[in-house]
Amino acid sequence: MKAVCWHGAEDVRVETVPDPTILNPRDAILKVTSTTICGSDLHIYDGFIPTMEPGDILGHEFMGEIVEVGAEVKRLKKGDRTVVSSIIGCGHCWHCNQQQWSLCDNSNPNSWMLEKIYGHGTAGIFGYSHAFGGYAGSFAEYIRIPFADYTATAVPKGIPDEKLLPVSDAFPTGYMGADLCHIQPGDIVAVWGCGPVGQFAMLSAYLLGAERVIGIDRFPERLQLARDFAKAETLNYEEVDVLEALKEMTGGRGPDACIDAVGMEAHGQGPEGLYDKAKQAIRLETDRPHVLRQMILACRKGGTLSIMGVYGGFVDKMPMGAAMNKGLTFRMGQMFGPKYIPKLVEHVLNGDVDPSVVLTHRLPLTEAKQGFEMFKHKQDQCIKVMFQPD
Amino acid sequence: MSQSIKVEKTVTIDKPAAELYSFWRQFENLPRFTRHLKDVRVISDNRSHWVITGPLDGTVEWDAEIVDDRPNELIAWKSVPGADVDNAGSVQFKAAPGNRGTEVKVVTVYNPPGGVIGNMLAKLFGESPEQQIGDDLARFKMLMEAGEIATNDGQPSGHSHSKD
After folding, report:
1. Chain B residues within 8 angstroms (CB to CB) of chain A
2. Please, what CATH class does the domain formed by B5-146 belong to?
C-alpha cells in the first residue's frame, strides 16, 4: 500500500510499504477513507518530537471502513464505517474505566520510554513517535486499529466524511479543553489559537454554557472563522495588547477560564519570543510557552487554565508566582477520545455542528509533502488539509 | 563468591487477587508475559523446571520448588541445589485501597555465577534488571486487564526504504 513516511525534519515521503495485518485478537484493520494533518503533526514535521524513526508512518486523525476484525473484536464488524480516536485505550484498565483514555496503562508497548522522562507511561497514539507506542499512522491506505471496539466508533453511512473526520481528534480535543473549564453560568472563556482545535474549543465552550467566548490569533482568516463558525469575539494579538484588551472586555476581571489551543511552537513576540525560539532551536528548552505565560497573567483570580496545545518536554520562565498568588487551577491532558466521540458524533448528526468548515483543502495522499508545506505556512489561507488515499 | 542481586518491583492491576494468584500459580503461564523465560514445566505440585534462553540459543535451566504458598496472597519459590544459577523469587498480592485493584509485588534474588552462564545473564539483564522485571510486570498487567499484550512487532513502515 501507499503510505506517508517520516524521514527527518521536513522530510516526508510517499512510499510503498506492506499492508498492515492483525497482530492481536482485539485488532481491526481499517481502510482509510479520509485523514487529516493535525497541528501536532507539525511538531513532528519540524523535528521537535523525539523517538521518531525514519520510515515511521505519520497521521492520527482519520476515519474509514473496517475490512477485517480480530477474534476478540465484539462490537465492530467488517463493513462498519467508523471514526477512530487518535488516542488508543484498552478500555479495561483503571484509567480507561475512569474515562481517562489518554492515561491508559496498557496501550503503549513502549511505556518505559515515557516512564523515563515523565515518571509514568501514558497511552499509545497513532503515528506519534515510539515513546507514544510506535503505532503506524493513518496517512496510508490501511491501518491497524488496536482495541478496535473502543478506539473506533461506528457511524452511520450517508453523511460525508468531511462532517465526521474532525470528530477523530480536533473536535474532541477542543471539546475537552472547554469541558476542563467547568464552565459556570456567566463565564467568559478566552481561547488562544484559532486553528481547528481552537475553533472547536470556542464552539464547545458555548455548547457547555459559556456566556461569551473570545478567540485570539493573528491570521485574519482564522479570526474570521472564529466569528462565523464559533460565534466568538476576536482579538488579533498583532494589533492589540492582549492583556489590556481582555481586561477591558471582561470588566477588569479577566476571563474566567483560558484555553491554550496553541502548544509548544507558540509564536511569541518581542524579546521573550526570541528567547524561547533561540533556546528551543538549540534544545535548551523543548517547548515555547509564550501562551501559557500570557494566560496566567490574563486569567481571572481563582480561574482555570485549560491546556490542550501539545507540550512535550520542558518550559522555563513560568510566572509561577502569579499563578500561585492568583489561586489558578491548571487542568490539562491529551484528549480522552472515547469519552467524547459518541457525544460529538450525535452533535454532528443532529446538525448542531458542521465540523467540515475547518477542512479548507483536499489533496490526494500522494501530495502529502505539499499538504504539510501548505498547512505549516498557512498558504492559501489553509486551516486544515484533508487527504483521501483513493 | 559474587554478591547476590535482589530486584523488587510492584505494579497495581485492576483485577481481584484471586484471579491474579491463580494465573501466576500455574507457572506454565509465566512465559506468556516474561521476555526471557522460555519455558516452565510443572513436574509436581510444588516442583517445576524453568528455562531461560539467551544469546545464540544458549539456555540456563534449573528446578525450583515452592517454599511458601498462601492462596490469593503469596507464592514463593527457590531453586534446588544443582541449578545453573541459584535464585529465589516471590510474588505477593495485596488489595489496593479504594477499589484500585491489587498491588502485585515481585521480588527476585539471584547469585550471578561466573563463566559462560554469568556472561549470558549479564547480557540478558544488562545494567537494569529492575527494568526487565518492571517490563515483565507491565506485560502481566496488560494480559490480565486488556487480555493481550500491546505490540507493534510486524506492522508496516518505510524503514526498509530508509537506507537508500
Report:
1. 12, 14, 100-101, 131, 134-135, 138, 141-142, 145-162
2. alpha beta
